[in-house]
Amino acid sequence: MKLYKLKNGILLEHARSFYEMPDKNWDHLVNQEDLYEALKEKISRGLPSMEPNDAKLLIQTELLAPVGSQEIWASGVTYLRSREARMEESKDAGGGDFYDRVYAADRPELFFKATPERTVGSGDQVKIRKDSTWDVPEPELTLFINSWGHIQGYTIGNDMSSRSIEGENPLYLPQAKTYDRCAALGPCLYVPGFPIPTNTSIALEIRRAGKAVFSDAIAISQMKRGHEELAGFLFRECSFSHGCYLMTGTGIVPPNSFTLNAGDEVRITIDPIGTLVNIVAN
Ligand code: DO4
Ligand code: MG
Question: Which residue has the CA at smallest separation from atom 5 of ligand 1?
């Protein structure tokens, strides 16, 4: 099942049918002990349905990020490629060792990424900082975890990052990661009712003036840590009354010669969630 948050309501897609959700309160709708079962029950009790073409048009024109009051958190250095890239970018600052250690440690790197206000949906603009000279998107499978601490769904996340600021000093991480329009989530909240398969692939394509200038893909099986493990650490001493989102880290880092430009189009695809598309602005 997929939940789309729109400017004027919420759409549910299930088995190629679309339904209008009478409950327009996102926080209330998604934070359920068993979201899949709750949505199934709503369908079986009867929901107003919508013509697929009308629903697709609304999704094209009215889509918002699938977020209400949820905080957006992120995981770091969960793939070998992220460890290598970070060790290299911070070696002059003497920070390389920290990334090596956190990759191997029991405790993962978890950090606060964004408020809902700093997060955009598919079709919207993400930003690169004006005081940054080296910027990349980070394509990340993103968990939706309910307030009981249980993973209920998935979306696609873009953890926009300034490599120049992060590389200058690892203590600048919050500035490299958190600023207006620093995070994108979407296009929907995918609620499969079972854990997402480990052969799921994350694909990134960056287009400049309509041409692909970088593309890569990675399977989530390449991740060093488990989803439950990451959620468990996040919920150790933090409660989330409406649930929260947790990005699971990037396994794709473009070569050091690459930086994002204003006008670039970032496309992140995770089947069967969909494609998250954002244009870069500064
Ligand atoms: O340690 C810095 C951030 C790492 C990160 O965002 C990632 O690995 O995805
Ligand atoms: Mg990241």
Answer: 76
